[in-house]
Write a structure and sequence with these properties.
The complex is a heterotrimer of chains A (149), B (64) and C (257). Chain A is an alpha+beta fold. Helix content of chain A is 32%, strand content 29%. Chain A folds into 2 domains: 2-31; 36-147, Beta Barrel (OB fold (Dihydrolipoamide Acetyltransferase, E2P)), CATH 2.40.50. A 5-stranded mixed beta barrel of chain A has the order 1-3-4-6-5. In chain A, a hairpin with a 2-residue loop joins strand 2 (65-68) and strand 3 (71-77). Chain B has a domain at 19-59. With 257 residues, chain C is mainly α. Classes of the chains: A alpha+beta (149), B mainly alpha (64), C mainly alpha (257). Chains in contact: A-C, B-C. Chain A binds chain C through residues 4, 7-8, 11, 14-15, 18-19, 22, 26, 30, 33-36, 38, 56, 91-94, 102, 116-132, 149, and chain C through 43-48, 52, 55, 77, 80-83, 115-119, 122-125, 162-163, 165-166, 170, 177-181, 183-186, 194-196, 198-199.
């Protein structure tokens, strides 16, 4: 019995130490674990133009312009700040105004020059009729606005 | 037939959806078959070894 | 409490042969009904259209990937601390099943990500931590079979399983702790599921089907592991008795696992 208790305490203490170590490491590297920066982060950090990074947020309503030749201009917002984005290429199916997206590229003179745009989708799943009905009754906004950090 | 084709097409994403379901089917069926083969072969080998022992059968449950 | 070397597995085998046919029947029935709802009797999504159907296999696979790891780590800990022989076997038998579920979660997730996000893979916290989970399973299996003495293999791999268990909460909460491309949880959250009931039904049926499958295959694999243990102890006895070891049988075992 005694050896069993010893092993149990040993395993318990080892797991606690391990969890603490993992928490410390993950906190220390938080900056590199984060997948994207919000417009507010980007504006306050002012990264160098040669640094490749990701910008995440919502496509601002009414900001999408398609001047032609595959060029797309839009603004990405976190409702506090917004950043202009320029992108040439094919957008994912889910890209639309009010939708969450992540753009990869470089921040050059205040404009985010994206070479890749990924769409985020939210964690709500429902049939289109239900979404329509909810929007009509005003119970639900229909996009991620209320959840932006 | 047209309805069936459009069902398979899944709004243009049929390739993704059917590949995902296909892979789940292959992996789960494969793991089941491998596991069943594993238990059968180990059982056959155990019986083979058991037969070579002087006192077989009864000792199988309490001793081994 | 001193367990006789195989007294416990024998009792376990009796229980296993009682449960196994039920687990098999439940797996088949749940998969049939789950697939019916997942592929035929459920609507498309307001945003994602038909692609949402990948969720009904991706999410259960991912849940089981985490569940199996937790089960494996608990079993490994019981084996390590209390020297319970069936617990060691349960941990060993769970690892390949969990690895398969993890592979399926990654594979179906990639097929879901391409049409919806626009990419097969990104190195965000959720996807990366699940890939680490997959490697932990592979490492566990390699380590468990790396020793001539299975007891030493079980001990070494149990330590790896316990070290890796910190990864499980990281996977679960990665979408809340850091911003990721992967969306946050829909079913397991404080405010209740954010999935319409018509989509929750196939999801839950498929999740139960995956769980029944796990129990079924786990019992089959544990049976095989018990046989392997018996074969080992018979071999040792043969060697003691001066008989030549059975070479033909050796090949069979190695071919299977």
């Amino acid at each position: 019995m005694k050896r069993k208790h010893k092993r149990l305490t040993f395993v318990g203490v080892a797991l606690l130490l391990l969890a603490a170590a993992a928490a410390l490491v993950l906190t220390a590297f938080e900056d590199s674990i984060v997948f994207f920066y919000s417009p507010t982060d980007l504006i306050s950090k002012k990264p160098a133009p040669d640094r490749r990074l990701r910008l995440g947020g919502l496509v601002e309503e009414g900001s999408v312009e398609k001047p032609g030749a595959g060029l797309v201009l839009f603004r990405v917002t976190d409702t506090a700040q917004a950043v202009d984005v320029s992108f040439t290429g094919i957008l994912p199916d889910l890209f639309r105004e009010g939708q969450g997206i992540v753009a990869e590229g470089h921040l050059i003179k205040g404009v985010f020059m994206a070479d890749n745009v990924l769409a985020k989708h939210d964690e709500n799943y429902m049939p289109p009729e239900v979404a329509e009905a909810l929007k009509k009754s005003g119970q639900w906004q229909g996009n991620e606005k209320e959840k932006t950090q | 037939m047209d309805g069936f084709a459009s069902y398979l097409n899944m709004g243009g994403h049929g390739g993704f959806i059917w590949s995902a379901y296909g892979m789940v089917f292959i992996v789960l069926l494969g793991l089941w078959l491998i596991s069943r083969r594993y238990v059968r072969l180990s059982k056959a080998q155990l019986d083979h070894l058991d037969q070579k022992r002087p006192h077989r059968q009864e000792s199988q449950t309490d001793e081994t | 409490m001193i367990f006789h070397k195989y007294a416990n597995p024998t009792r376990f085998l009796k229980l296993a042969s009682l449960i196994q046919p039920w687990a098999a029947a439940a797996t088949v029935l749940l998969f049939l009904s789950g697939l019916y709802f997942a592929l035929l009797a459920s609507p498309g999504d307001y945003q994602q259209g038909e692609t949402v159907r990948i969720m009904y296999i991706h999410v259960p696979a991912a849940w089981m990937a985490m569940f199996c790891y937790t089960a494996m780590a608990v079993a490994a800990a019981v084996g390590l601390i209390w020297k319970h022989p069936v617990a060691d076997l349960a941990a060993r038998a769970t690892a390949p099943i969990g690895a398969c579920f993890t592979f399926l979660a990654l594979f179906t997730g990639s097929l879901w990500g391409k049409p919806m996000w626009g990419t097969w893979w990104v190195w965000d916290a959720r996807l990366t931590s699940v890939l680490i989970l997959f490697f932990l399973y592979l490492g566990y299996m390699a380590l468990a079979n790396a020793f001539d003495d299975p007891a030493r293999g079980s001990k070494a791999s149990a330590i790896l399983a316990l070290v890796g268990v910190v990864n499980v909460p990281v996977i679960k909460f990665s979408v809340d702790w850091w911003n990721t491309l992967h969306q946050p949880a829909s079913v397991v959250k404080m405010s209740g599921p954010a999935i319409h009931p018509s989509m929750l039904i196939p999801l839950i049926l498929m999740a139960l089907a995956f769980k029944a499958y796990y129990i079924w295959v786990l019992l089959i694999r544990m049976r095989a592991e018990i046989n392997e243990g018996k074969i080992r102890s018979l071999r040792l006895r043969q060697v003691h008795a001066g008989q030549p070891p059975d070479a033909a049988g050796d090949k069979i075992t190695q071919a299977v696992n």
